[in-house]
Amino acid sequence: MRETDPVDGVLLPAGEAGGVPIRLLLFAGLRERRGTGEEWLLVRPGTTPRALYAQLFPDRGEGRIPVLFAVDQQWTDGAAPLREGQELALIPPLGGG
Amino acid sequence: MLRLVDGPIDVRELERAVAHPGAGAVLCFQGTTRDSFEGKGVLHLEYEAFAPMALAELERIAAEARARFPGSRLAVAHRVGRVEVGEASVVIAVSAPHRDEAYQASRFAIDALKARVPIWKKEWYADGSQWKANAESRGGDG
User: Do A86 and A23 meet the contact criterion of CB atoms below 8 Å apart?
Assistant: First the structure.
């Protein structure tokens, strides 16, 4: 995958060799937009959380939602490639309290 | 005591959890559900949490509060699921040797919660619903 082109070709078709299985967790508006809160995805080696987010949630003209990333329940800046079996949570702006 | 609760919060239980003989003050903050947003009627709220990370972040906040305000104790309960207007969505009980630390610790805890704990709120109106972000929420750069 090209580092400079995060949107292109992040997801692999099921069964294609060389994919990295990861578990994706979505919440609130992101969960509703995608229609599921939890799924397994096969991504290309080298895919970062930032790239995956851009691929799954392209800007539809209303501006990007500024998400936070958590990998295996640890906050991260989303710049490191995902590894096999990791859990990625996309965290939209918080509303607790 | 840190918990996510699908149902009314037992305020007395949180107060008992922080009360101890060394405390000179026990303070209880309740964040309650308002019936309007910018003039629009709110019917009820709905909260969603990433439970394991929410509890871990609350634990970090409690540890930071203990470090900042020695002798303080903190208990937090936050609702998940549907919350009716007028009900408490969050309760923070604090005890401290003196009232000043108790007020400060309580303020620190609610501000940190709103900024850092992965919980989301949806407001329901007569004509729809909307996820509402806190002004204090940590910003992402994704």
Answer: yes
Tens digits of per-residue pLDDT, B21-53? 999 999 999 999 989 888 889 999 999 999 999
| Three-state SS sequence of chain B | CEEEECCCCCHHHHHHHHCCCCCCEEEEEEEECCCEECCEEEEEEEEEECHHHHHHHHHHHHHHHHHHCCCCEEEEEEECEEEECCCEEEEEEEEECCHHHHHHHHHHHHHHHHHHCCEEEEEEECCEEEEECCCCCCCCCC
Q: Which residue has the higher pLDDT, B140 or B68?
A: B68
The three-class DSSP label of residue A32 is: helix
d(Cα B90, Cα A74) in Å, to the nearest integer? 24
Q: Which of B50, B116, B139 sits opposite A66 (nearest CB)?
A: B139
Q: Which residues of A touch B (CB under 8 A)?
A: 25, 27-29, 31, 49-50, 53-54, 64-70, 73, 77-78, 89-97
Considering the entire predicted model, what is its pTM?
Answer: 0.90
What's the Cα-to-Cα distance from B139 to each of A47, B3, B113, B130, rounded to whole Å? Answer: 22, 25, 14, 19
